[in-house]
Inverse folding.
């Protein structure tokens, strides 16, 4: 499976962006999919995830209330809507898919571990100016 992340860009503080993660080679409709981000000099951190069934969503506490993750089955794409962006949200954002089913709704923490995802997109830059 190949993941293509897009939708990043330069936005002023308070603005919004919608990131897209389009998959080819395999449907994402039954695969847990997550978004992570990595700022310069920092470790990759969890942002949001949607479970394989689509019935559960998970968000990082630091951005909760400003994010919505969703899935478009027809387009085989997962979206991340980000609102009220802040300069500290500046980072490269990556989408990732868990084809090996390492994540579990029984453990919300499992969605936040990068090692539980086996396919990654190339990343899309998000820059928020003050």
């Amino acid at each position: 499976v190949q993941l293509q992340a897009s939708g990043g860009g330069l936005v002023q503080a308070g603005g919004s962006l919608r990131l897209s993660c389009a998959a080819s080679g395999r449907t994402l409709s039954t695969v847990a999919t997550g978004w992570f981000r990595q700022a310069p000099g920092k470790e990759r951190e969890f942002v949001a995830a949607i479970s394989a069934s689509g019935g559960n969503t998970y968000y990082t506490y630091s951005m909760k209330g400003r994010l919505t993750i969703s899935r478009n089955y027809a387009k085989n794409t997962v979206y991340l809507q980000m609102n009220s962006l802040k300069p500290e949200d500046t980072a490269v954002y990556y989408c990732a898919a868990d084809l090996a089913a390492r994540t579990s709704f029984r453990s919300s923490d499992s969605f936040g571990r990068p090692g539980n995802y086996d396919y990654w997109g190339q990343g899309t830059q998000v820059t928020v100016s003050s």
Notes: The mean pLDDT is 95. The chain has no helices and eleven strands. Residues 37 and 93 are 4 Å apart (CA to CA).
